[in-house]
Design brief:
This protein is of the alpha+beta class and about 290 residues long. Helices cover about 35% and strands about 30% of the residues. The chain has two domains: about 80 residues; about 170 residues, Protein Transport Mog1p, Chain A. Strand 4 and strand 5 form a beta hairpin. Helix 1 packs antiparallel against helix 2 and helix 2 runs antiparallel to helix 3.
Length: about 290
């Protein structure tokens, strides 16, 4: 007589069930969170951390929102996807608020706009613009009617080169606008363009004022094409010298003669030369 094998009784081929599982239930593998849900969570956290950085935080936040929505639609991805969605949404909101604050601050600070802190309006029958407020206006009624502008900085330099704007002494800087008669411009460059006029002045007029460093820079004066020429001045202690040249959109009258070409010169002894030039260009209006 042999001993029967030890072990649990045979069930006759019936299925075995895990503890707690009832007959009729199909075993399910444990739920696993996919890579998309994890990516949504990581992007959401990253977006929330750097959401204060304009543009970058916004882009990352939008990407996190998209990943979060996609992850929530997949099995097992709801919790991570929701967390990523919330973090990314907060990042987008924070980024929009920060961007608004930055833009408002830049506008209020004047960055990107040419505004003189101390400007004086110049108004003639041909044009108007803002000139530097600390330059004296040597204007007479005749000059104004003839569309001529003369702004001059009067003062003295001490031994250290510091300018004292006394209103007397020497002319240290100027902003001048000179209209040129049509008869003269037709004689200089018959039927010529602004480019032809700049070339003519470069041969005849500019060398008297100094060394040209940049002959042609395209700008606009109230929507009209103009040219900016930069120079190293022959005048002592001049920081900035430049000429604006432009053909006006209409023919004006100056001292009884028709004029269309205008020459605007800048001789600036201080470091605000670029500011003065930019303010004149931005504020220029034709009548």
């Amino acid at each position: 007589m042999t001993d029967s094998p030890q072990g649990p009784p045979q069930t006759g081929g019936l299925p075995e069930y895990a503890p707690g599982q009832t007959p009729g239930q199909t075993p399910h593998p444990p739920t696993r969170r996919g890579g998309l849900a994890l990516a949504a969570l990581i992007v959401g956290i990253s977006a929330f951390v750097i959401g204060w950085i304009p543009i970058l935080g916004l882009l990352l936040g939008v990407a996190g929102i998209i990943l979060g929505i996609l992850a929530m639609r997949r099995p097992g991805g709801r919790s991570f996807g929701l967390a990523g969605l919330i973090g990314s949404s907060l990042a987008v909101l924070a980024n929009v608020l920060v961007t608004i604050v930055v833009v408002v601050a830049l506008v209020n600070s004047g960055i990107g706009t040419a505004v003189l802190t101390d400007a004086q309006p110049v108004i003639t029958p041909c044009y108007s613009f803002n000139g530097p407020g600390d330059f004296l206006s040597n204007q007479s009624a005749e000059k104004t009617d003839a569309c001529i502008t003369t702004l001059e900085l009067w003062g003295e330099r001490d031994a250290d080169g510091v300018i004292h704007k006394t209103g007397v002494g020497s002319i240290l800087g100027s902003v001048l606008v000179e209209p040129v008669a049509v008869a003269s411009t037709d004689d200089w460059v018959p039927g010529g363009s602004l480019d032809d006029m700049v070339e003519f002045l470069n041969q005849s007029y500019f060398p008297q004022a100094g060394e040209v460093t940049s002959l042609k820079e395209a700008v606009t004066l109230d929507g009209v094409d103009a040219n900016l020429t930069r120079m190293i001045s022959t005048a002592e202690n001049t920081r900035t010298e430049a000429f604006l040249t432009v053909f006006a959109p209409d023919i004006y009258q100056s001292a009884g003669e028709p004029v269309k070409f205008f020459l605007i010169s800048f001789v600036i002894p201080e470091d605000n030369g670029e500011e003065i030039i930019a303010a004149a260009i931005d504020s220029w209006r034709w009548k």
